[in-house]
Amino acid sequence: MKSGSMRLKEISLRQDPDLRKELALLARGCDFVLPSRFKKRLKAFQQIQVHPKKEEPLTPALSQNIPKFYFPKGCPKTNFNIDGIISKIEKTFSDFPLERATLEDMGKVAKACECPMYWKAPLFYAAGGERTGYVSVHKFIAVWRKILQTCHDDSAKFMQLLAKPGCNYLEQEDFIPFLQDVVNTHPHLTFLSEASEFHSRYITTVVQRIFYQVNRSWSGRITCSELRKSNFLQHVALLEEEDINQSADYFSYEHFYVIYCKFWELDSDHDLYIDESDLAKHNDHAISSHVIQRIFSGAVTRNRKVHKEGKISYADFVWFLLSEEDKKTQTSIEYWFRCMDLDGDGVLSMYELEYFYEEQCQKMESMAIEPLPFEDCLCQMLDLVKPQTEGKITLHDLKKCKQANIFLDTFLNLEKYLDHEQKDPFSVLRVGENEGQELSDWEKYAAEEYAVLVAEEAANEQWNDGYDAELNLLDVPVANADDKRPFFELPSHSSEVDLEEYEYEDDFE
Ligand SMILES: [Ca+2]
Ligand SMILES: [Ca+2]
């Protein structure tokens, strides 16, 4: 291929009349001294002359014979009737006053476009709806026709609707208007309408879950191909049919509730950031302090905009909890691998394993449990993972072995390590075999924790009701009703966080 600068040089040479004259003289055999500025250019010209064939484009006949096989925006369907869809859209708009659709009307428009209902807000915003509060039939059809002509599958269309102009990827903030509309209009989330301060928490949670699941490259930018390989758009389509809690990968309200409550317990000053000592309290200090240090060193947070010095945000905690409670997923294995790979050379070496195991041993000794010597533990683990290269465990080895969770807990989480130790190894294998048919580790954890939280909440309410009744009996003004823990405790006015100032952007720091 011809480089851009080479091509430029060639053009300027050919257009330079002085040089053409010189070259013509040279061709006729005249022998004279070339000015030095021409010598260089002559050389460049001669190089072009020597290899002209290399740079010629393929003949049209040849290139026409190769069928197109790369469709970044989806493979075009034959017999796709764009005009049929357009007339359906026109008919839908004709029911609206002045043929203008508001955001509330967009559900019908989405259906006329043959899109899932919750594409309504992206369709509205892509047609410029937020500037005027409505979209006109002409503007909408122009936008949608162009998308139909250029994007040939749902992933390409969704990408086109959400991405910033000129971008072929999605960043975290690109999902916010879409998710805000889900929060505002999904029937299972309407109870949140009174608590707008939790909209941003829910949205942050879902955005992080989307990137956790879909952005396989960890780049912070979801590509069309990543979107296509994921199950995200299926979940968006199911939003209009199913209970939102059925969306275990992304939208579940119950999962959000569990994640946020877990964070709330750790974030004692409720500024939405936690430090190392806060995170250490998770799960009764079960997690290795060495690995917590690694999380705070940026090993797994550096690709997202971080962070207050020595702190991680709620968004980072979502990644932590998902990884901690299900060590069988691709992202989780990558997450802990990055933490354990201290020197960042892409393999876990023996000294790295020993570094983490040492702390487990100390903890066990303090609990009067006799730890397995490192060499024995290592043998077990190498047997489990069966690395391709002896003594070096790669990410690929870990993903392939199907028991990465046991390996990781051995080095990172004492409580879970001891749990695994007590289990019959064959029962673990059998569980592994049935994978996919049963709930994931994350779903099991979330369901159990949700049940506990709801029970606690009910008990609190009962206690408080009794307390209030007692106070009323004594005819004391209920000034202490603040003690009651509401659904989610709101930061008080004296808190450092001003909710008015707390915009969504803060969640994405
Ligand atoms: Ca805090
Ligand atoms: Ca390493």
From TrEMBL:
One GO term in the molecular function aspect is: protein phosphatase regulator activity
Note whether tRNA-binding occurs among the keywords: no
Q: Which Pfam families match?
A: EF-hand_13, EF-hand_7, P2R3B_EF-hand
Alphabetically ordered keywords of this record: Calcium, Metal-binding
Show where the EF-hand domain sits: 328-363
| GO CC term (a single one) | protein phosphatase type 2A complex
- Please name the PANTHER family in this protein's record: PHOSPHATASE 2A REGULATORY SUBUNIT-RELATED (PTHR14095), SERINE_THREONINE-PROTEIN PHOSPHATASE 2A REGULATORY SUBUNIT B'' SUBUNIT BETA (PTHR14095:SF1)
Per the entry, what this protein does is: The B regulatory subunit might modulate substrate selectivity and catalytic activity, and might also direct the localization of the catalytic enzyme to a particular subcellular compartment.
Output this protein's name.
Protein phosphatase 2 regulatory subunit B', beta L homeolog isoform X1
**What species is this protein from?**
Xenopus laevis (African clawed frog)
